[in-house]
Write a structure and sequence with these properties.
With 257 residues, the protein is an alpha/beta fold. The chain is built from 7 helices and 13 strands.
């Protein structure tokens, strides 16, 4: 049997303020290749380039990665604000439609950070642009130095920062073999109201939604708010998630054979 092909969504960037490119973090690609056992293939987060139906005829699974840009507020009926930029409206268009299409067609879908948020919005949910502004919530953004710059040490940036309580007997509890985990935190935006088919399976100690499952999905359809692509070779939580995604890819291949 061939290696499962996994589509990994790209993000819009401008290099040297001149060249428009699509980019994917290498950690996502390595997690797919080294832990899930798949062949990662980046696709453009742009509806002018990416034909979703053709894409889903080609791949065995989809990864919606994290990204610097927020989901545009108009996608959940909120006015945009400059302080919550940047946005990536083209990725929004692809990712939201793709989330629904994957679930409909039984294609494994794994949403990470922004990917979880996209899945929620795709099924009618809403987001809060700054979770830390809600009373009682912690600052979920990545650690910074006193001068405001992002901390230069990735082991600090991606260090575990808070606990997540998992739903007993839920998909995450079964995959991870426990009901409490500790994860990293690198996001500002987060789920406010869950979508109609979005089941909450993990909640941080401050009440922030950290893990979701799409109800009645015929295949793997899970999202996490933390960056599960970070060091899955050594982080047992992240490794188990990418291994479970890999198992779902093989099941999809067998079903399609």
């Amino acid at each position: 049997m061939r290696k499962p092909v996994v589509g990994v969504i790209g993000n819009s960037h401008r290099v040297e303020n001149r060249f428009q490119v699509q980019m994917v973090g290498e950690r996502n690609l390595r997690a797919v290749a080294e832990v899930s056992g798949g062949l990662p293939v980046m696709f453009a987060g742009s509806p002018d380039i990416t034909d979703i139906a053709a894409l889903l005829d080609t791949v065995d699974g989809i990864i919606l990665t994290g990204a610097r840009a927020n989901v545009h507020p108009t996608r959940f009926n909120v006015d945009p604000c400059e302080k919550h930029e940047p946005y990536d409206i083209h990725r929004d268009e692809v990712a939201l439609a793709l989330s629904v299409a994957c679930v409909s067609r039984g294609i494994p879908l794994f949403g990470i950070c922004r990917g979880l948020q996209e899945m929620n919005v795709a099924f009618g949910g809403s987001l809060h642009p700054e979770i830390r502004e809600i009373p009682g919530r912690m600052n979920h953004r990545m650690p910074r130095l006193e001068n405001g710059e992002i901390h230069p040490d990735p082991t600090v940036v991606f260090a575990d920062r808070h606990d997540v309580d998992l739903t007993p007997g839920g998909a995450f509890a079964r995959i991870l073999g426990c009901e409490k985990i500790r994860v990293n935190s690198l996001h500002g935006q987060g789920i406010l109201e869950p979508g109609k088919r979005v089941l909450i399976e993990g909640v941080a100690e401050d009440g922030t939604i950290e893990a979701i499952r799409i109800a009645e999905a015929p295949a793997f359809a899970l999202g996490v708010q933390w960056h599960a692509e970070y060091d899955p070779q050594h982080n047992p939580i992240n490794r188990k998630l990418f291994e479970a995604f890999g198992e779902a890819l093989v099941e999809r291949q067998k079903a399609a054979a």
